[in-house]
Amino acid sequence: MGESAEVFYVCKTIAGTGIGAAALSALFIVLIHGALLRARARRQQRARQQVLGSKSLLACRIAAAEAKMIEAFDDVKKDTRAAVEGLKNEFSQISRLNALTCVGDVDWEAVSEQVNEMQLKTNRVVSKMDEEIAFARSAREKCPSLLREVPDLLTQVKNLLQTGGVGNPNAAWRFATAAAHYDEIRRVLDASTGEPDWVKLYPVLVGIKRDCELASRAPVYMDEFA
Asked: Which domain holds residue 163?
Protein backbone atom coordinates (compact mmCIF):
# COMPACT_ATOMS: atom_id res chain seq x y z
CA MET A 1 0.00 0.00 0.00
CA GLY A 2 1.33 3.44 -0.94
CA GLU A 3 1.75 6.26 1.57
CA SER A 4 -1.31 8.22 0.41
CA ALA A 5 -3.48 5.10 0.35
CA GLU A 6 -2.37 4.14 3.82
CA VAL A 7 -3.11 7.59 5.26
CA PHE A 8 -6.54 7.50 3.61
CA TYR A 9 -7.20 4.08 5.08
CA VAL A 10 -6.22 5.33 8.55
CA CYS A 11 -8.54 8.33 8.28
CA LYS A 12 -11.40 6.13 7.12
CA THR A 13 -10.79 3.72 9.98
CA ILE A 14 -10.82 6.53 12.55
CA ALA A 15 -13.99 8.06 11.12
CA GLY A 16 -15.87 4.82 11.61
CA THR A 17 -14.96 4.29 15.26
CA GLY A 18 -17.59 6.60 16.76
CA ILE A 19 -15.36 7.55 19.74
CA GLY A 20 -15.17 10.99 21.39
CA ALA A 21 -13.39 13.96 19.88
CA ALA A 22 -10.43 13.99 22.29
CA ALA A 23 -9.84 10.27 22.01
CA LEU A 24 -10.38 10.47 18.28
CA SER A 25 -7.73 13.20 17.97
CA ALA A 26 -5.21 11.21 20.00
CA LEU A 27 -5.92 8.05 18.06
CA PHE A 28 -5.62 9.96 14.83
CA ILE A 29 -2.17 11.26 15.80
CA VAL A 30 -0.95 7.82 16.86
CA LEU A 31 -2.19 6.08 13.73
CA ILE A 32 -0.91 8.77 11.35
CA HIS A 33 2.47 8.74 13.09
CA GLY A 34 2.62 4.97 12.73
CA ALA A 35 1.68 5.18 9.06
CA LEU A 36 4.41 7.76 8.42
CA LEU A 37 6.98 5.64 10.26
CA ARG A 38 6.08 2.59 8.20
CA ALA A 39 6.24 4.62 5.00
CA ARG A 40 9.69 5.94 5.93
CA ALA A 41 10.82 2.41 6.78
CA ARG A 42 9.75 1.24 3.32
CA ARG A 43 11.64 4.11 1.69
CA GLN A 44 14.71 3.31 3.75
CA GLN A 45 14.52 -0.33 2.73
CA ARG A 46 14.24 0.55 -0.96
CA ALA A 47 17.15 2.98 -0.64
CA ARG A 48 19.20 0.32 1.17
CA GLN A 49 18.62 -2.13 -1.66
CA GLN A 50 19.58 0.51 -4.22
CA VAL A 51 22.79 1.37 -2.38
CA LEU A 52 23.86 -2.23 -1.91
CA GLY A 53 23.02 -3.02 -5.52
CA SER A 54 24.99 -0.14 -7.05
CA LYS A 55 27.90 0.06 -4.59
CA SER A 56 30.01 -2.60 -6.30
CA LEU A 57 29.58 -1.05 -9.74
CA LEU A 58 30.56 2.37 -8.40
CA ALA A 59 33.63 0.85 -6.74
CA CYS A 60 34.69 -0.71 -10.04
CA ARG A 61 34.24 2.55 -11.92
CA ILE A 62 36.29 4.53 -9.41
CA ALA A 63 39.00 1.85 -9.46
CA ALA A 64 39.06 1.97 -13.27
CA ALA A 65 39.34 5.76 -13.16
CA GLU A 66 42.27 5.51 -10.75
CA ALA A 67 44.00 2.91 -12.94
CA LYS A 68 43.60 5.15 -16.01
CA MET A 69 44.95 8.11 -14.06
CA ILE A 70 48.02 6.15 -12.94
CA GLU A 71 48.67 4.84 -16.46
CA ALA A 72 48.57 8.33 -17.97
CA PHE A 73 49.64 10.23 -14.85
CA ASP A 74 51.59 13.01 -16.58
CA ASP A 75 48.76 13.62 -19.07
CA VAL A 76 46.12 14.12 -16.37
CA LYS A 77 45.95 17.57 -14.82
CA LYS A 78 46.55 18.06 -11.12
CA ASP A 79 42.99 19.08 -10.29
CA THR A 80 41.62 16.03 -12.12
CA ARG A 81 43.94 13.74 -10.17
CA ALA A 82 42.74 15.42 -6.97
CA ALA A 83 39.13 14.79 -8.04
CA VAL A 84 39.86 11.06 -8.43
CA GLU A 85 41.40 10.96 -4.95
CA GLY A 86 38.34 12.82 -3.65
CA LEU A 87 36.04 10.17 -5.11
CA LYS A 88 38.08 7.44 -3.45
CA ASN A 89 37.93 9.16 -0.06
CA GLU A 90 34.20 9.81 -0.33
CA PHE A 91 33.50 6.23 -1.39
CA SER A 92 35.49 4.86 1.55
CA GLN A 93 32.62 5.97 3.80
CA ILE A 94 30.08 4.12 1.68
CA SER A 95 32.20 1.01 1.18
CA ARG A 96 31.80 0.11 4.86
CA LEU A 97 28.08 -0.43 4.38
CA ASN A 98 27.03 -3.98 3.58
CA ALA A 99 24.12 -6.42 3.83
CA LEU A 100 24.73 -6.77 7.58
CA THR A 101 24.30 -3.05 8.21
CA CYS A 102 20.93 -2.57 9.91
CA VAL A 103 18.35 -0.37 8.25
CA GLY A 104 17.92 1.77 11.35
CA ASP A 105 21.66 2.45 11.76
CA VAL A 106 22.01 4.49 8.57
CA ASP A 107 19.98 7.11 6.72
CA TRP A 108 19.85 5.02 3.58
CA GLU A 109 17.91 7.62 1.61
CA ALA A 110 20.70 10.15 2.18
CA VAL A 111 23.32 7.55 1.24
CA SER A 112 21.35 6.68 -1.90
CA GLU A 113 21.38 10.33 -2.95
CA GLN A 114 25.10 10.45 -2.23
CA VAL A 115 25.72 7.37 -4.39
CA ASN A 116 23.72 8.88 -7.26
CA GLU A 117 25.70 12.11 -7.00
CA MET A 118 28.98 10.19 -6.91
CA GLN A 119 28.01 8.34 -10.07
CA LEU A 120 27.49 11.68 -11.82
CA LYS A 121 30.77 13.06 -10.44
CA THR A 122 32.61 9.93 -11.59
CA ASN A 123 31.18 10.39 -15.10
CA ARG A 124 32.36 14.00 -15.17
CA VAL A 125 35.84 13.18 -13.84
CA VAL A 126 36.36 10.28 -16.28
CA SER A 127 35.14 12.42 -19.19
CA LYS A 128 37.50 15.24 -18.23
CA MET A 129 40.38 12.81 -17.82
CA ASP A 130 39.71 11.27 -21.25
CA GLU A 131 39.79 14.75 -22.81
CA GLU A 132 43.08 15.59 -21.11
CA ILE A 133 44.70 12.33 -22.16
CA ALA A 134 43.50 12.74 -25.76
CA PHE A 135 44.78 16.33 -25.84
CA ALA A 136 48.20 15.29 -24.51
CA ARG A 137 48.51 12.49 -27.06
CA SER A 138 47.52 14.85 -29.86
CA ALA A 139 50.07 17.38 -28.63
CA ARG A 140 52.90 14.83 -28.64
CA GLU A 141 51.89 13.66 -32.10
CA LYS A 142 51.44 17.06 -33.77
CA CYS A 143 53.90 19.38 -32.04
CA PRO A 144 57.10 18.17 -33.76
CA SER A 145 55.61 18.71 -37.23
CA LEU A 146 54.18 22.09 -36.19
CA LEU A 147 57.57 23.08 -34.87
CA ARG A 148 59.12 22.29 -38.26
CA GLU A 149 56.32 24.08 -40.13
CA VAL A 150 56.19 27.34 -38.17
CA PRO A 151 59.54 28.87 -39.30
CA ASP A 152 58.54 28.56 -42.96
CA LEU A 153 55.15 30.14 -42.22
CA LEU A 154 56.80 33.06 -40.45
CA THR A 155 59.22 33.54 -43.34
CA GLN A 156 56.37 33.54 -45.86
CA VAL A 157 54.42 36.18 -43.93
CA LYS A 158 57.55 38.29 -43.45
CA ASN A 159 58.29 38.23 -47.18
CA LEU A 160 54.70 39.17 -48.01
CA LEU A 161 54.87 42.10 -45.61
CA GLN A 162 58.17 43.30 -47.08
CA THR A 163 56.90 43.13 -50.65
CA GLY A 164 53.53 44.65 -49.88
CA GLY A 165 51.78 41.42 -50.82
CA VAL A 166 49.51 41.47 -47.77
CA GLY A 167 46.49 43.72 -47.71
CA ASN A 168 45.25 42.68 -44.28
CA PRO A 169 45.58 45.68 -41.93
CA ASN A 170 46.19 43.35 -38.97
CA ALA A 171 48.89 41.34 -40.72
CA ALA A 172 51.87 43.15 -39.17
CA TRP A 173 50.42 42.82 -35.69
CA ARG A 174 49.66 39.11 -36.15
CA PHE A 175 53.14 38.50 -37.54
CA ALA A 176 54.78 40.29 -34.60
CA THR A 177 52.67 38.28 -32.13
CA ALA A 178 53.44 34.97 -33.83
CA ALA A 179 57.17 35.75 -34.07
CA ALA A 180 57.34 36.71 -30.39
CA HIS A 181 55.60 33.51 -29.35
CA TYR A 182 57.90 31.44 -31.53
CA ASP A 183 60.99 33.11 -30.04
CA GLU A 184 59.68 32.26 -26.57
CA ILE A 185 59.16 28.63 -27.58
CA ARG A 186 62.69 28.47 -28.94
CA ARG A 187 64.05 29.79 -25.65
CA VAL A 188 62.08 27.18 -23.73
CA LEU A 189 63.26 24.36 -26.00
CA ASP A 190 66.90 25.51 -25.93
CA ALA A 191 66.84 25.58 -22.13
CA SER A 192 65.15 22.18 -21.85
CA THR A 193 67.27 19.11 -21.17
CA GLY A 194 64.53 16.51 -21.48
CA GLU A 195 61.30 15.91 -23.34
CA PRO A 196 59.52 19.21 -23.98
CA ASP A 197 56.19 19.84 -22.33
CA TRP A 198 54.19 19.47 -25.52
CA VAL A 199 50.90 19.95 -23.70
CA LYS A 200 51.87 23.53 -22.86
CA LEU A 201 53.53 24.21 -26.21
CA TYR A 202 50.76 22.76 -28.38
CA PRO A 203 48.18 25.57 -28.03
CA VAL A 204 50.93 28.16 -28.51
CA LEU A 205 52.13 26.53 -31.74
CA VAL A 206 48.55 26.22 -32.99
CA GLY A 207 48.07 29.92 -32.24
CA ILE A 208 51.24 30.84 -34.13
CA LYS A 209 50.11 28.88 -37.19
CA ARG A 210 46.67 30.49 -37.05
CA ASP A 211 48.14 34.00 -36.81
CA CYS A 212 50.35 33.32 -39.81
CA GLU A 213 47.44 32.01 -41.85
CA LEU A 214 45.23 34.97 -40.93
CA ALA A 215 48.02 37.45 -41.63
CA SER A 216 48.38 36.03 -45.15
CA ARG A 217 44.71 36.44 -46.01
CA ALA A 218 43.27 39.35 -47.91
CA PRO A 219 41.07 41.61 -45.79
CA VAL A 220 37.31 41.04 -45.81
CA TYR A 221 35.14 44.15 -46.13
CA MET A 222 31.53 44.43 -45.07
CA ASP A 223 30.44 45.74 -48.49
CA GLU A 224 31.38 42.36 -49.98
CA PHE A 225 28.30 40.94 -48.22
CA ALA A 226 25.99 43.78 -49.31
From this structure: 136-225
